[in-house]
Design goal:
single chain, 128 residues, mainly alpha, Arc Repressor Mutant, subunit A, three-stranded antiparallel β-sheet, globular, WH-like_DNA-bd_sf, transcription, HxlR family transcriptional regulator, DNA binding, HTH_HxlR
Length: 128
């Protein structure tokens, strides 16, 4: 019998709503996380740089996502005591370990864009 995350000697099970692995998958599966991690994979960046490179993200969502990534240990926030204060974000070792699978998803989306678009158009025509 496999125990769940809510039991003392649990086996991690992301399909169990109470398992902490679900939170991790929710975080790394979030569209803003994928894009922010991808940008930080190129190097450290300031808030304004991230906002400029991640099209469509609001200041509020960027702030919330960065805080969550920092809390989860995927991003490190460094404050430089300058005037004005300078803040930079960088991937931690754990964050860098996400680059390969996230880039694989990004590459897949690029390679399959035509197929997915054609399927969407066919579906939409058939369901009008």
């Amino acid at each position: 019998m496999v125990t769940t995350c809510s039991e003392p000697d649990y086996v991690a099970n992301p399909y169990d709503a109470d398992c902490p692995t679900r939170h991790i998958l929710d975080r790394i599966g979030d569209r803003w996380t994928v894009l922010i991690i991808g940008i930080l994979g190129r190097g450290d960046a300031r808030f304004s740089e991230l906002r400029r490179h991640v099209g469509g993200i609001s200041q509020k969502m960027l702030t919330q996502t960065l805080r969550g990534l920092e809390r989860d240990g995927l991003v490190r926030r460094t404050v430089f005591p300058e005037v004005p204060v300078r803040v930079e974000y960088a991937l931690t070792d754990s964050g860098r370990s996400l680059l390969e699978p996230l880039y694989a998803l990004q590459d897949w989306s690029i390679r399959h864009l035509g197929d997915v678009s054609a399927s969407q158009e066919a579906y939409d025509r058939a369901n009008q």
